[in-house]
Amino acid sequence: MNVSNNDGSVVALVPAAGRGVRLGESTPKAFVTVGGTPMVRLAVDGLIASGAVDRIIVMVPTELVESAVALLPPSESVRVVIGGAERTDSVRCGIAAAPHAAHFLVHDAARALTPPELIARVVAELRAGAEAVVPALPVVDTIKSVDARGEVTGTPDRAGLRAIQTPQGFAADLLRAAYADERLQATDDAGLVELLGTRVRTIPGDPMAFKITTRLDLLLANAVLDGARMAGRS
Ligand code: C5P
C-alpha cells in the first residue's frame, strides 16, 4: 500500500499494446486509423477533453514507442511506456509507472469514440468516494452459456446482465492490490478487483464507448466520425 505517497491525482492508463489481428489490418489495432486519426490518439484526446484526468500513460509494443510519441499530443502529462504480452501485463506496466496516483482509470485505446462526458462521470464517482466504478449498458441480445460441444447449458435472465465498457475507475491502492497477485485472472480490470471481494459500482455507459474489435466496428466508427464532421459543416 502506498497511501503516504498519494498525490491526489487521477491517472489514466491506456493499454494499446495489443496486436489486434481480429481487425484484419497489418497495423496493431490501437494504431489503426478511424476518420484519419489513430485510435490511440482519439482515445487520449477524449481523456484530455474530459478535463478530469491529470496524467495519461499509454502502453504500446516496444517497436512502436517512437511512433506513439510522435502521434500523441506533445504534453508533459502524456507518457508512453512499453506494454506486455497480455493486456494484464500492459496494465501492470502502466501501474508501475504511476506510483503516486490516487485514482486510476483504465481505458482501452480501442474504445476510441468514448464521449469525454462519460470519462468525467467515472472520475466524479471516484472523487465522491467510489472504490471501483464501471460504465454499463443493458444487454440487448439473449445471452446463453454453452458447453464445449456448443450445447446450451443455461439462459441467464437478461434483465440482470450488463455489457461493461471502459474507462473503468479505481482507487489506486485497490488496483495495485488487484494486480499485485499475478495468479488472479479476469477478462477486465473490475473482474480482478471483484476477486479481492470489493464491490464494483456501475454507472450508465454510452453506446459511443463501443470497442472497435471487428471490421464491422471499424466501418461503424468511420461512419460515426464522417457523420459528425458533416453535421459540423452544415
Ligand atoms: O484485444 P482486446 O480488444 O481485448 O484489447 C483491449 C485493449 O488492450 C486494446 O486497446 C489493446 O491494444 C490492449 N492490449 C494491450 N496489451 C496486450 C494486449 C492488448 O495493451 N498485450
From TrEMBL:
It catalyses: 2-C-methyl-D-erythritol 4-phosphate + CTP + H(+) = 4-CDP-2-C-methyl-D-erythritol + diphosphate. InterPro entries: IspD, IspD/TarI, IspD/TarI_cytidylyltransf_bact, Nucleotide-diphossugar_trans. GO terms for molecular function: 2-C-methyl-D-erythritol 4-phosphate cytidylyltransferase activity. Coiled coil: none annotated. Keywords: Isoprene biosynthesis, Nucleotidyltransferase, Transferase. It is an enzyme of class 2 (transferase). It holds the Pfam family IspD. It comes from the Bacteria. The record marks R22, K29 as: Transition state stabilizer. The record marks R158, K211 as: Positions MEP for the nucleophilic attack. Its EC number is 2.7.7.60. Pathway: Isoprenoid biosynthesis; isopentenyl diphosphate biosynthesis via DXP pathway; isopentenyl diphosphate from 1-deoxy-D-xylulose 5-phosphate: step 2/6. Catalyzes the formation of 4-diphosphocytidyl-2-C-methyl-D-erythritol from CTP and 2-C-methyl-D-erythritol 4-phosphate (MEP). HAMAP family: IspD (MF_00108). Belongs to the IspD/TarI cytidylyltransferase family. IspD subfamily. This is 2-C-methyl-D-erythritol 4-phosphate cytidylyltransferase. It comes from Nocardia vinacea.
